[in-house]
Design goal:
InterPro entries: RNaseH-like_sf, YqgF, YqgF/RNaseH-like_dom, YqgF/RNaseH-like_dom_sf
Order of helices and strands: EEEHEHEHHH
CATH class: Alpha Beta
CATH superfamily: YqgF/RNase H-like domain
Radius of gyration: 14 Å
CATH architecture: 2-Layer Sandwich
Function: Could be a nuclease involved in processing of the 5'-end of pre-16S rRNA.
Number of domains: 1
Number of strands: 5
Organism: Reichenbachiella carrageenanivorans
Main location: cytoplasm
Oligomer: single chain
Keywords: Cytoplasm, Hydrolase, Nuclease, Ribosome biogenesis
CATH topology: Nucleotidyltransferase, domain 5
Largest sheet: 5 strands, mixed
Amino acid sequence: MGRILAIDFGTKRTGLAVTDPLKIIATPLDTVRTFQAIDFLKKYHETENIEAFVIGMPKDLMNKDTDSTASVRSFINLLKKNFPDHTIHQMDERYTSKIAMAAMISGGMKKKDRQKKENVDKLSATIILQSYLESRL
């Protein structure tokens, strides 16, 4: 039984979140530099079985591609090449950064910690993953 790993792709940093082995709860994992993401995922997969990936797909309010969509699709192709036996699900990532920021504020996170973009990235990945888990119910 493997975990589901979520990816909030960015051109500089990529936020990661993961489920528990029972695939009930989404938890922030880490934020990595994007050029190191595949190596990080390979190492993580050596110790924790990854069953599937969920990646945030950027769309605008009219559900059209954004400037970032092509980069995400390229990363998906890289994932498929490196993890050919894994399912890759795409989830709408609209508003995840704003939701993540609001969650940090309501959770009482200090301003200096909220300003660290890596915290927003991994929390956004967690929101993407939790949305995916809820959509399966």
